[in-house]
Every structure is written in structure tokens, then in C-alpha cells.
Here is the input.
Amino acid sequence: MAWSWRYEGANGEPAQGPAEQFGSQADAESWIGQTWRELAASGVTSVALVEDDRVEYRMSLLPPAE
Here is the structure.
């Protein structure tokens, strides 16, 4: 099973990001924990964790609304 991230911009359109693949969900989550700030700074507003072609979950990279 291959895990990867899909990147989305402000309007939900696909955004550019590293084409990394991971052997486990934990490896993918650890990587996003280390790189999300750089992704957000480059215009990525949300990510989706994908196993093969199945979306496991989506996550915003934006700060919580106050």
C-alpha cells in the first residue's frame, strides 16, 4: 500500500507540492507534521491523505478561526 498527500489551494483547486510516497500512514503523518508550515507558506490550504486511490481524510493547514 502506498500513502501520499494531495494538495489543495484556497478554492479547492489542486496545488503543487512534493510528490512523496510513504510505506505507512504513520510515516506520511510524521512527514506532514514536519512540512505543513512550508506547504502553507507556498499556498497549500488543505491536504488529503491518500492510500492508493482512496482518500483516508482531509485536513486544513489554515489556522483555526477565532
About this structure: The longest strand covers residues 54-60. The longest helix spans residues 25-41. The helical segments are 25-41.
